[in-house]
């Protein structure tokens, strides 16, 4: 009888055990669309437009943190909400990037959406290229070299005017990387470089267009196993 009671108690305890809370998933961004000129909802001043951001709901998310970064200054504005849209006043004629972070109160882990870039329209007639998107290696990634002691640097570029002239690739074991290892035509987006094991490298891409406008990807680092 005692054994039977223990079994019953165990079954009750097991049956009452709650599932572990699930981490929120990443949202899918909607507007402003990637690599476009946005359509502001209103003009807030001579120098700023109000821009609306929208995204799709993420599973297991309770709140969302919108983070919008001025790509010229590096300044980031944040706004938390339970809704699927928010507005922010942003400087005219300026490129921005944005992400949404999904959160819930049951777990510490968060999920971050893709990063999209857009232009808030102004009076300019031409646009500087968006900063190059670093594809590989990612920031602080650890990578293996190939049998030739090389790895491949990959990036992508975009310009609203479709007039990218070339890319300057800087690569070094020092930061900021000051060694220009090559200038590549607009159709190029990869370069093999020689590396050594147990070494940290720094790299960045400067994009130039036909009108002399430039943009800087920012510095990325990686370590070779």
Question: How does this structure look, described?
Answer:
With 225 residues, the chain is mainly β. The protein folds into two domains: 29-120, Sandwich (Immunoglobulin-like); 133-224, Immunoglobulin-like (Sandwich). Helix content is 7%, strand content 47%. The protein has one helix and 19 strands. Strands 2, 5, 6, 8, 9 and 10 form a six-stranded mixed β-sheet that branches. Strands 12, 14, 15, 17, 18 and 19 form a six-stranded mixed β-sheet that branches. Strands 1, 3, 4 and 7 form a four-stranded antiparallel β-sheet that branches. The radius of gyration is 24 Å and the shape is flat. InterPro entries: Ig-like_fold.
Secondary structure topology:
Blueprint: H1 2-16, E1 29-31, E2 36-37, E3 42-43, E4 48-55, E5 63-70, E6 76-81, E7 85-91, E8 94-103, E9 111-112, E10 116-120, E11 133-136, E12 141-143, E13 150-156, E14 164-172, E15 180-185, E16 190-194, E17 199-209, E18 214-216, E19 220-224
Parallel strand pairs: 2-10, 12-19
Antiparallel strand pairs: 1-4, 3-4, 4-7, 5-6, 5-8, 8-9, 8-10, 11-13, 13-16, 14-15, 14-17, 17-18, 17-19
Short key terms for the protein model shown above:
225 residues; mainly beta; Immunoglobulin-like; 2 domains; six-stranded mixed β-sheet; 1 helix; 47% strand; flat; Fibronectin type-III domain-containing protein
The biggest sheet, with number of strands, parallel, antiparallel or mixed sense and barrel status, is: 6 strands, mixed
Q: Per CATH, which architecture of the largest domain?
A: Sandwich
Helical residue percent? under 10%
State the order of secondary-structure elements, H for helix, E for strand: HEEEEEEEEEEEEEEEEEEE
- Terminal residue distance: 61 Å
* Total strands: 19
What is the 3D shape?
flat
Helix run count: 1
Average per-residue pLDDT, rounded, comes to 93
SS-based class = mainly beta
* The first-level CATH class name of the largest domain: Mainly Beta
The name CATH uses for the topology of the largest domain is Immunoglobulin-like
Q: Could you give me the name of the CATH homologous superfamily of the largest domain?
A: Immunoglobulins
The share of residues in extended strands comes to over 45%
Low-confidence stretches: none
């Amino acid at each position: 009888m005692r054994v039977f009671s223990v079994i019953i108690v165990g079954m009750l305890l097991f049956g009452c055990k709650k599932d572990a809370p699930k981490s929120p998933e990443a949202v899918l961004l909607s507007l402003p669309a990637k690599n476009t000129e946005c359509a502001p909802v209103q003009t807030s001043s001579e120098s700023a437009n109000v821009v609306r951001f929208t995204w799709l709901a993420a599973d297991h998310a309770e709140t969302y943190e919108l983070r919008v970064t001025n790509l010229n200054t590096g300044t980031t504005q944040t706004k938390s909400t339970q809704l699927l849209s928010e507005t922010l006043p942003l400087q005219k004629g300026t490129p921005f990037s944005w992400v949404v972070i999904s959160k819930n109160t049951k777990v510490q882990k968060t999920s971050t959406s893709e990063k999209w870039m857009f232009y808030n329209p102004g009076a300019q007639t031409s646009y500087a290229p968006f900063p190059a998107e670093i594809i590989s290696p990612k920031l602080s990634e650890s990578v293996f070299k190939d049998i030739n002691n090389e790895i491949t640097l990959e990036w992508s570029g975009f310009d609203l005017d479709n007039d990218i002239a070339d890319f300057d690739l800087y690569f070094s074991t020092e930061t900021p990387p000051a060694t220009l290892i090559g200038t590549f035509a607009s159709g190029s987006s990869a370069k093999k470089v020689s590396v050594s094991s147990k070494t940290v490298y720094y790299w960045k891409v400067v994009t130039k267009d036909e009108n002399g406008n430039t943009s800087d990807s920012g510095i990325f680092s990686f370590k070779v196993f």
